[in-house]
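User: structure tokens for this one?
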Amino acid sequence: MTEELLSGTLTTVSSILDEISKSKRPLKVIKREGLSILIEDYNNVLMVVFSLEELSKIREKMQVFLQEFMDFFEDALRLEVTDQMAFRPAKKLIQKHFFYYW
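Assistant:
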């Protein structure tokens, strides 16, 4: 599965589940058979982490990561750049924040 397809799929799944739940609060976690899918949204950027359990430490790291991601890619996001190569430096941010989980 390509990164673009996975990204679109995750966005669609989140949207569908938000509609199903009919909740005014955004979907934050999906739990199923020993797997937690943590979802964090910041200024229309959606981050999804698959984990064996829901840990507050991972959630905190997601929030800090998203803030740095938004700061680093501010211009690309404002210009709505769709070229995945423009976001390649995000790998270093991921390693910085999730090194122990990598």
